[in-house]
Amino acid sequence: MKKTKISKAVLSFLLILTLCTGCAPASVITDPTAAVPTASPAPPPADASAEESPWHKFTRTDMSVFDTVISLIGFAKEQAEFDAIADEAVRRLREFDHIFDGYNEYEGLHNLYYVNRYAAQEPVEIPEPLFDLLSWCKEQWEAGLRETNVAMGAVLSIWHEYRDAGTKNPDAAQLPPMEDLQSASQHVSFDQVTLDEEKHTVFFSDPALTLDIGAVAKGYAADAIADYLYSVMPSFLLSLGGNVYAGQPPLDGRAAWAVGVQDPKHSTEVGSGGVLDVLDVHDKTVVTSGDYWRYYVVDGERYHHIIDPETLMPSRKMLSVTILCDSSVLADFLSTALFVLSYEDGRKLADSLEGVEVMWVLPDGTVEATEGMADYARSLRGR
Ligand code: ADP
Ligand code: MG
User: Fold this and answer.
1) What atom in ligand 1 is closest to the CA of residue 216?
2) Cys-Cys crosslink for 39: which of 58, 112, 233, 279, Cβ 3.0 to 4.6 Å?
3) Which ligand is nearest to the Cα of residue 211, counting in written order?
4) How far apart are the C-alpha atoms of 273 and 270, rounded to whole Å?
5) Which of 204, 230, 248 is the last residue of a domain?
6) pLDDT of 272
7) Least confident of 11-25, 97-111, 117-131
8) pLDDT band (50, 70, 90) for residue 204
9) What pLDDT was estimated at residue 268?
10) The domain containing residue 180 runs over which residues?
11) Are 37 and 23 in contact (CB under 8 A)?
C-alpha cells in the first residue's frame, strides 16, 4: 500500500501560504509577515531601537516529509545559518518520517511498517524514538486514557481503506461494514503489546493487532525538532501539519507568536473557512484535531478520520479541539482523545491536567475553553 500523496487540501494550504497566511491542517500560523514561502530576510524594522538588531527573520517551507506541509520560521543572523538549521531540521524530520511510516519499508529499518508485519512472529528490535513513543502511549493506556488508542490499527486500517477508495471513486464511496469493524475491534488491546525495555523490542501476543500512530507521531517529532531548534535558534515557529510549536518570542519586538485556530464551521478543507481565533504564544505547542481534514463523503455525509473506540465510527461530538501546552506529543494525544470525549468528560480531564489549556468547537458552533485559555486567545482576553 502506498502512502497518500500530497493532497489537494495541502496544495490549497500552500496557495494560502503564498497569499500570506500560513495554514496548517488545523492550527494556523497567522503572523502576516511570517509566512513568506521562501526564506528571505525580514524587511528593515521601522523603529530606531530595532534598527541595530542583528536578527533577521527567515522562512522555510517543505513538503517532502510527513505527508504534510512543514514550515519553519526563525530568527537568525544570516541566511546561511538559517539554511543549515532548516536543512538539519528537515533531515531529522525525514528520519522520524521513515521510522514512523506504517506504509512503506526502508532497507534495514525496523519501522512501524516492519513492526506491524513481523512483531506477532517474534520480538522486533526497534529504534529509540519508536520505542519511546510506544512506551509513552502504553503508559497513557495503563493510566486509563483509552480514547486515543494507537493499538487500534486493525479498526483504523479498515476506515483508511474505505476512505481511500471513496476518495478515489466518490460515486462508489461506501461505509465499512459494522461486522468487519466489530471483529477488528476484538484486536485492539494494548495489553497484547509487550515492550521490553532492556532489549528495546516490541512483540504482539495478538497476531491480528496492528499499531497506527497517526494520532501522535507528528507531536513526538515536533517535540524532538523543537528541542534541536532551542539549542541552535531559540526564536522559532515550527508547523508540522496541525502541530505548531512556538519557541522563544520573535526577535522583532513582539512579545509572542500569533498562532491561528482554523474555523471548523466553514472549513471544507485545509486552509479554508477562515480563522476562529488567534493564540499569542511562546514556548508552547498548539495542536488541533478537526473534522474538516481527511474525510470522505458517503451519501452526502462527511466521515472523517478520528474514530471513537466505543462506536467504531467517526466521532461527531466536536468540530474541532485545540490543545495548548508544553509537550506536542501530549497535545497531539489529547487533541484526538478530547475529540472523541463529550465536552463534559473532556473538560473534567482537561481541568485535571496541569498546564494544559483547551478550546473546543461543538457541533452547533459553540466555543468552550478552559479558564487559562483566556491568557492566550484574543477573543477571550478580559473575559
Ligand atoms: P491529524 O492526522 O489530522 O493530525 P489526529 O492527531 O487527531 O489528526 O490523528 C488522527 C489519526 O490518528 C487518524 O488519521 C488515525 O490514523 C488515527 N486515529 C483516529 N482515531 C484514533 C483513535 N481514537 N485513537 C488513536 N488513533 C486514532
Ligand atoms: Mg492527535
Assistant:
1) 6
2) 58
3) 1
4) 8
5) 204
6) 63
7) 11-25
8) very high
9) 63
10) 112-204
11) no
Judgement on whether residues 375 and 254 belong to the same structural domain of the protein: yes
CATH number for the domain harbouring residue 175:
1.10.3980.10
* Distance between Cα 369 and ligand 1 center (Å): 22
What number is the average pLDDT over the span 357-361? 98
Q: How far is the CA of 342 from the centre of ligand 2 (A)?
A: 16
Length of the chain (residues): 383
Q: Indicate whether 370 and 223 sit together in one domain.
A: yes
SS3 call for 32: coil
d(CA 321, CA 334): 9
End position of a domain, from candidates 176, 204, 232: 204
Query: Does residue 84 surpass a pLDDT of 60?
Result: yes
Distances (CA, A) of 87 to 71, 91, 153: 12, 6, 33
Cell numbers placing 234:
531559540
Q: What is the pLDDT of residue 293?
A: 73
DSSP 8-state code for residue 312: S
Ligand that comes closest to the CA of residue 25: 1
Integer Cα distance of 154 and 141 in angstroms: 17
Measured by CA distance, the residue closest to atom 15 of ligand 1 is 214
Which residues have their alpha-adjacent CB atom under 5 A from ion ligand 2? 215, 332, 335-336
Calculate how far, in angstroms, residue 333's C-alpha sits from the geometric centre of ligand 2.
5
CATH of the domain at 66: 3.10.520.10
332 CB within 6 A, ligand 1: yes
67 pocket-lining for ligand 1 (C-beta < 6 Å): no
Grid look-up 479498515 returns 158
pLDDT tens sequence across 122-177: 999 999 999 999 999 999 999 999 999 999 999 999 999 999 999 999 999 999 99
In the chain, what is the greatest distance between 2 CA atoms, to the nearest angstrom? 69
Mutational pocket test of ligand 1: of 336, 341, 360, the residue with most ligand atoms within 8 Å of the beta carbon: 336
Within a domain: residue 243? yes
CA distance 361 to 335: 12
The angle at the Cα of 160, spanning 261 to 285, to the nearest 5 degrees, equals: 25
